[in-house]
MFS transporter (Gracilibacillus salitolerans), 406 residues
Amino acid sequence: MAKNINPFIIILLALGAFVTGTAEFVVSGILEIISFDLDVSVSAAGQLITVYSLSYAVGALVMVLLTAKFERKKILLYAIFTFILGNIVAFISYDYTVLMLSRIIMAMSGGLYIVVATNYAAQIATAEKRGSAMATVITGFTVSLVLGVPIGTFLAAYLNWRYIFLIIAFVTVILLLLLHKLLPSIKGNEPVPFKQQIHIIKDKRVITGLTTTIFWILGYTMVFAYISPLLSNSAGFSIEMTSIALFVLGTFAFIGSRFGGFAVDKWGPNRTISISLFVHAVALLVLTFTQHSTLGVFITLTVWGAATWTTTPAKQFYLISLKPQSSETVLSFNTALMNIGMMLGAALGGIIIQYTHILNLSWIGGLFIIFALVFIKYSFYLNETDSRNIEMRLQTSQEECHLNKN
């Protein structure tokens, strides 16, 4: 593609990831407000996150597959336009069903956008800067946790929560106009048949690795989706204090995502994933005891945020290493299953709140992270066994060749 691509275009693509991430996660910070305003239970309001995650998975996997042969700039712009419509529907929603519809629209278009935008960044960047370009777009999504969610939560204390989505729509309109003017065109490709994609992930190492993704994000989302009512009930946090807590969590999530890349280069994916999952599980189990203290909450959130998102780049690196020739397909399934895990986490969290108590979320979430650790350890074992078998077959083949020569 263009050799002297304008770096501003990559930043614009990252801004798109930022607004889609903000729209997805901001509901967690204003869950109680939405629950009260629409006269539904907190667990019912939590299903706005469940449905969003499921719809996002559809957008990231199915919609990408269906639109693969079409010109990519048009698909990207249509996805952004549809996302704007979803936010406008959310702004005018005075009914739970209408708000749910807006979440579906935003999620499917957002899921399609993030996959196409990440690939776009790789396509338009020079070969030596492709990794950096993709990382920039993904960082935009992570920064939504640092800035978008706490700012949105803070604004909800002074404005009607619906105006958050109007602001997101306004920013996205500006983004749409700039990308329409500056973004170069890219032709579509023939989609990989679904049967071929399924064949790629039949490898037990990949299956157990992807299962880890589900349990990891399930345990995280079970707590994060209900973080606002959890902190309100346990530590008596106001909406302003919750926004500060989310800022701290998001900041250390960002630090964790950057540290994860460094850790993989220095210690490898196996050690990085194992340690980060272990710390993640411990943090959630400890939160059961520290959630009644303001200082305890903030200390635990820093460890939890850093550990959770240290896992992300390390796990992606590991999955790609298993199937380097089919990395896009593996990561596509990982993205889809990650959102299915979010859906299950929000759904199970709602059930726990409905039938037990919200204070049980953290330790139950920690148990799911332990399951994730067990599955990834099994995946490592299978990978090491497979590598040893290949080495043994290679050594045997070399010995046979040596004997035949003699």
